[in-house]
Design goal:
The protein is of the alpha+beta class. The chain has helices at 16-24, 47-57, 118-121, 208-217, and strands at residues 5-10, 27-33, 40-46, 62-68, 73-84, 91-98, 105-114, 125-128, 132-137, 146-149, 158-160, 170-172, 178-183. The chain has 2 domains: 5-100, Ribosomal Protein L25, Chain P (Beta Barrel); 106-183, Ribosomal protein L25, C-terminal domain (RNA Polymerase Alpha Subunit, Chain A, domain 2), CATH 2.170.120.20. 16% of the residues lie in helices and 38% in strands.
Amino acid sequence: MARPRIQAEVRPELTKSAKKTLRAAGIVPAAVYGSKVEGSILVQLKLTDLTRAVKEGGENVIIDLEIQGNGSKSIPVMVHQVQRDPRSRRILHVDLRAISLDEKVTTTVPVHLEGEPVGVKQGGILDQLHSEITITALPQDIPPHITLDVSGMQVGDIIRLGDIKVEKAEVVGQADDAVVMVRQPHVGHVEAAAPAPEAAEEPAEESATEQAEETSEG
């Protein structure tokens, strides 16, 4: 699939009110930085172009960014960080990382689960402990997501970070970290059964002296 191409314009430092005006017009302030860029380049681009590229290519999509006013050159970039309004979730600002297609990058990739575990059908509970994992790979080898087939998992089974293999990529992290597990359901508190009543004591056997006294009295 061809890489999406987005046009951006160089912008100056903006006041808060100027940024607000841009966003109202559907324009997002952004900054481009990375080893292939001197310092950082302040740009602005259309929100619709950015959201379309991410929707079609995933969070780690490679974008050919054409920067007008910077020699009109095209730079391959990846979305590094998105700042959103905490209430409306509207995008406020984007950091774009300039990359080299022949240099590996480290990034996070979403983890998707596929199938219903056997253990869940038997009453167990599926726990996904990590919704994404970190990998290192060439930019073009980064998958949009990683799919784990959990259909064969029994109660007590665990998929750890070291069990996950990603083609043309290295998984980063502690190999024994649990990513997905099927556990026993939590058992509520069960009151201990009341102790059985003690058996009545058997009457003590009469002593030989008592028996002799009863005989003499008879």
